[in-house]
């Protein structure tokens, strides 16, 4: 869409500058001030509901694996229900072929047996700790990614894909949210009058102005957003990732995006290489592919981290599923990643945490810190301090 | 129109309908609220079109049979969905969840007892049962009617027990399939324990995450609750009683005494679990949590400690009497401060807008997408924790924009049946600011006037 079509739609605001929502258009600049491209892109994918890490990345050759996992165990590569080979005795769930290709291309690392400092098993509390970056529950009401945005040399913001801004993006730095469009858009004139009504309202004013800026970029042409909205109803993740890619590749776009994906709390009938969890993993795989394709050349400077609040029990429970656990799996991938490595320590399955969970041998926060530092060219120590240590 | 009427209708209730502020103003806001809590019979939702939980579960059982029958023997390995399956699922969903949502929204938009109705929504959220997949679709509507509406002005302990024993909760949180490893059924099939309901009962419904219990308590409670199941849900089926109702099956129950929070509960079949729940329901930790949640929902995101303390005291003193709690809320000065401090949730916003527009008959179809896009589809809370209740969660930039888009559609439909200023006056009374009045007067079209009214700071809050 060009910048000066009439009547002005929200998309057209991209070219007109937004302070005071005036119609000033000479020397039109993009809605976000143009930034020099020295900072790469960081994408955080939060899997809400506690992904079963052992189902995603299976320690096939661990002596206790088959006995402990029972019907949830994956088979040897090349067999029916077989995992995709990662080398070193590990296998990737067969529902993740896209991720497997990234692994083989050296664009993905895996951090297994990881966790935040949180040691209980409540989703809500676990996600609080995952997103705040604090060492303890309710340790901060801002998110680590928002605090890290503050370290960037020039102001950049973060976008949450979804209807709400997640905790990880809340705080002093600018953040916004975007979700696919609902209906014919409210006119620019009406929005401008609403902004007048919102003058002095510290909640509604900033919210509306940020929304208008983001929406103009993300829509990417009529229909694209609506497709995402319809697809979302069927539980597909890929359109959300595509929308994220469009927002991230816009001139002067955000430095970070957060996508939250639900549906990982597999207490019953989880399945192994096929079934409930495998279907979800397949959608995650497609979303990452959509993100990579959508980012185009920008993939080369992008870092993506996929993380969840904790793992699940090693043994299958009485209903063919798993319960909340501790040690889980995270992925670090992207065009800029020096990949093909299993990070951290592998504690094995001979001893379990509280005789039920994978031991959390590795601190997930370290992965957050190092991946953001790499993405944005920052000192890792400074990132650790600002994001996690000094909370 | 008095300001107490505005607060009663909009903050305590679900939003004023045209003419309602005048009616309330006659006896005053407090009297209007007090009258509602004394007539719980009007809270019930008895509609012949709505199925009981047993009926809804039976409808789904029929759907599954039809689906299985439609698969030919040679297609046994093909995934479940067939050509007619989508239609069959849509039909049974409409018959159950769809009908329930229609009825609930219709009630919310048209009721005269909107404070009592909001009270029901609050407790329904506390004991969330949500439609998450095909299995859970038939559950939330009957659960709310059979448990929450039945006990909304009764005792917390009774509501908690009824909630835990209801087929909706037993299925939603996987209790119906949970088998004691040492039970008859456990020994036979090697099937096992599911801790989901026990965990949420402790963490969400009673003590709260810091209420003083351990993982061992969760497991012991889970063991005590084995045998609490629903006829027709066991792996082999065939239990006495009407299908789709609560039944205690000793063969699934983990034998032996249980120790929860240091107290021993001897073996006693279904009474064992009941005794534990009764003890939990008496714990002082609950009063604090309930008080905080009620104050947060009805008054402010950061409620005054005095208000929370008063609600807690009322709850404890009355032994968890929910009508007494509602009375204490109505009598609390903090709840009547003039400035609205609660940002409306999507449900609040949509219902109050429909009420303000004088809508008499809601057809939910067109609204379904709106509720979803705004992030709050009825009966589909994302987790057992229910819907969040504070502004940061709902006031995301994009959500505001989406509300404005919907307000535009609403305005187009209301144009002709009322004027924007009439809507604003009817909904806000003396709370209508001169700035908004001027803005509406200067609107370039009726539709725009409605958008300004419905999106105004004073309508977006309560």
Report low-confidence residues of chain B grouped into runs of 5 or more.
76-80
Taking the alpha carbons of the first and last residues of chain A, their distance comes to: 43 Å
User: What does the oligomeric state look like here?
Assistant: heterodimer
Q: In order across it, which strands form the biggest sheet of chain B?
A: 1-2
Task: Report the total helices of chain A.
Answer: 12
Which structural category fits the helices and strands of chain A?
Answer: alpha/beta
In what range is the share of β-strand residues of chain A? 5-15%
Return the string of H and E elements of chain A.
EHEHEEHEHHEEHHHHEHEEEEHH
Terminal CA distance of chain B reads 17 Å
Mind telling me the C-alpha Rg of chain A?
A: 22 Å
**Which of globular, elongated, flat, extended, rod-shaped describes the shape of chain A?**
globular
Beta-strand segment tally of chain A: 12
Mean pLDDT value of chain A: 83
Structural class of chain B: mainly alpha
Shape by Cα distribution of chain B: globular
Write the layout of secondary structure elements.
The complex is a heterodimer of chains A (391) and B (462).
Chain A: E1 41-47, H1 53-56, E2 57-58, H2 65-69, E3 84-87, E4 90-92, H3 97-104, E5 108-115, H4 123-132, H5 144-149, E6 158-161, E7 175-178, H6 188-197, H7 204-218, H8 224-233, H9 238-249, E8 256-261, H10 276-295, E9 302-308, E10 328-333, E11 342-343, E12 362-363, H11 364-376, H12 380-389
Helix pairs in contact in A: 8-9, 9-10, 11-12
Chain B: H1 3-12, H2 20-27, H3 29-37, H4 53-70, H5 85-110, H6 114-126, H7 140-151, H8 156-165, H9 167-172, H10 184-189, H11 196-205, H12 215-225, E1 228-230, E2 246-248, E3 258-260, E4 263-265, H13 270-281, H14 284-298, H15 305-317, H16 322-330, H17 346-356, H18 364-373, H19 391-394, H20 397-414, H21 420-428, H22 434-441, H23 446-455, H24 457-460
Antiparallel strand pairs in B: 1-2, 3-4
């Amino acid at each position: 869409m060009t910048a000066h079509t009439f009547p002005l739609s929200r998309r057209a605001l991209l070219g007109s500058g937004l302070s005071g929502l005036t119609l000033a258009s000479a020397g039109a600049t993009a809605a976000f001030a143009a930034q020099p491209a020295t900072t790469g892109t960081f994408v955080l994918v939060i899997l809400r509901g506690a992904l079963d890490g052992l189902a995603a990345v299976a320690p096939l050759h661990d002596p206790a694996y088959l006995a402990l996992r029972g019907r949830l165990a994956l088979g040897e590569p090349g067999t029916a229900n077989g995992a995709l080979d990662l080398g070193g005795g590990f296998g990737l769930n067969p529902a993740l072929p896209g991720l497997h290709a990234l692994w083989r291309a050296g664009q993905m690392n895996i951090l297994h047996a990881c966790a935040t400092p949180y040691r209980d098993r409540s989703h809500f509390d676990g996600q609080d700790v995952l997103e705040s970056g604090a060492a303890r529950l309710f340790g901060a009401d801002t998110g680590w990614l928002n605090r890290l945005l503050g370290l960037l040399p020039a102001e950049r913001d973060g976008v949450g894909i979804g209807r709400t801004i997640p905790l990880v993006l809340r705080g002093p730095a600018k953040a916004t949210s975007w979700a696919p469009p609902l209906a014919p858009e409210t006119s620019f004139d009406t929005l401008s009058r609403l902004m007048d009504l919102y003058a002095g309202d510290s909640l509604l004013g900033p919210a509306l102005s940020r929304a208008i800026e983001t929406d103009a970029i993300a829509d990417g042409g009529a229909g694209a957003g609506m497709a995402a909205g319809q697809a979302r109803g069927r539980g597909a993740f890929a359109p959300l990732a595509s929308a994220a890619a469009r927002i991230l590749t816009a001139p002067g776009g955000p430095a970070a995006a957060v996508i939250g994906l639900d549906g990982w709390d597999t207490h019953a009938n989880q399945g192994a290489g096929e079934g409930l969890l495998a279907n979800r993993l397949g959608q995650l795989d497609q979303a990452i592919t959509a993100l990579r394709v959508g980012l185009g050349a920008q993939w080369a400077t992008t870092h993506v981290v996929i993380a969840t609040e904790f793992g699940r029990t090693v043994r299958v429970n009485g209903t063919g599923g798993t319960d909340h656990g501790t040690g889980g799996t995270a992925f670090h991938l992207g065009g800029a990643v020096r990949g093909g490595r299993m990070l951290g320590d592998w504690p094995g399955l001979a001893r379990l945490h509280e005789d039920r969970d994978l031991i959390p041998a590795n601190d997930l926060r370290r992965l957050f810190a190092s991946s953001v530092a790499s993405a944005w060219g920052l000192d890792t120590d400074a990132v650790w301090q600002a994001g996690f240590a000094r909370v | 129109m008095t300001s107490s009427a505005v607060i009663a209708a909009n903050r305590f209730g679900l939003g004023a309908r045209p003419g309602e502020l005048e009616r309330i103003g006659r006896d005053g806001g407090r009297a209007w609220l007090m009258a509602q809590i004394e007539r719980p019979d009007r809270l019930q939702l008895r509609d012949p079109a709505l199925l009981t939980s047993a009926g809804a579960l039976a409808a789904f059982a029929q759907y599954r049979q039809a689906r299985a029958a439609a698969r030919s023997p040679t297609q046994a390995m093909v995934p479940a969905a067939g050509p007619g399956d989508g239609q069959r699922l849509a039909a049974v969903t409409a018959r159950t969840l769809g009908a329930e949502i229609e009825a609930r929204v219709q009630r919310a938009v048209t009721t005269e007892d909107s404070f009592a109705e909001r009270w029901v929504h609050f407790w329904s959220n506390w004991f969330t049962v949500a439609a998450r997949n095909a299995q859970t679709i038939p559950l939330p509507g009957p659960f709310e009617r059979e448990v929450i509406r039945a006990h909304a002005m009764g005792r917390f302990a009774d509501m908690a027990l009824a909630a835990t024993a209801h087929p909706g909760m037993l299925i939603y949180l996987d209790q119906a399939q949970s088998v004691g490893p040492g039970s008859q059924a456990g020994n036979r099939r090697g099937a096992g324990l599911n801790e989901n309901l026990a965990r949420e009962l402790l963490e969400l419904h009673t003590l709260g995450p810091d209420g003083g219990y351990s993982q061992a308590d969760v497991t012991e409670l889970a063991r005590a609750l084995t045998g609490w199941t629903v006829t027709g849900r066991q792996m082999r089926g065939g239990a006495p009683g009407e299908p789709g109702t609560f039944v205690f099956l000793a063969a699934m129950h983990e034998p032996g005494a249980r120790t929860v929070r240091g107290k021993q509960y001897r073996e006693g079949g279904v009474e064992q679990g009941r005794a534990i729940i009764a003890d939990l329901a008496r714990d002082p930790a609950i009063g604090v949590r309930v008080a905080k949640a009620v104050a947060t929902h009805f008054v402010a995101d950061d409620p005054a400690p005095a208000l929370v303390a008063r609600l807690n005291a009322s709850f404890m003193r009355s032994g968890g009497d929910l009508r007494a709690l509602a009375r204490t809320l109505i009598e609390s000065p903090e709840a009547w401060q003039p400035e609205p401090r609660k940002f409306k949730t999507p449900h609040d916003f949509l219902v109050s807008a429909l009420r303000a527009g004088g809508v008499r008959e809601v057809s939910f179809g067109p609204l379904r997408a709106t509720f979803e896009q705004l992030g709050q589809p009825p009966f589909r809370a994302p987790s057992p924790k229910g819907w969040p209740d504070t502004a940061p969660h709902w006031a995301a930039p994009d959500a505001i924009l989406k509300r404005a888009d919907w307000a535009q559609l609403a305005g187009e439909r209301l144009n002709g049946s009322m004027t924007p200023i009439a809507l604003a006056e009817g909904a806000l009374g003396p709370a209508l600011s001169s700035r908004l009045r001027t803005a509406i007067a200067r609107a370039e079209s009726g539709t725009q006037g409605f958008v300004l009214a419905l999106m105004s700071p004073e309508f977006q809050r309560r």
